[in-house]
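USER:
Working in pairs, take the chain set out below, taking as long as you need, and write a paragraph about the fold.
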Amino acid sequence: MIRVLLPALILSSLSGAATLSVANGTRGWVFTGVYVRVSGSDGGWGSNLLGEGEIIGLTGLWSTRLAPGIYDIRLEDSDGDGYVKSSVVLEEGFLWKVALSDMNDPASIPGALYDRSG
């Protein structure tokens, strides 16, 4: 279900879309994955929104357009650790300035529910 839903959310018309931005403030890690899902949905995270070989580098900024709504966002760093922000209200735009203290889904937790195939 999420695989069908996410393309529709991402490809919404620009007039009705909102911007999700991620600023890397971890001071040491790059992000290799960005995953979103409709907040409160069960199941996995779907595909990586970063393009093939794309990263969010040190002090990097990345943005995408999504349909307005309430989302859970998960970032994955180069060490496999996750940073999850839940129930983000995306109306016009949202900027997540990610810090190392935001890490809340260590790679040591088995059974992560997202698709690394991107």
In short: Residues 1-5, 10-14, 110-118 have pLDDT under 50 and may be disordered. The first strand starts at residue 18 and ends at 24.
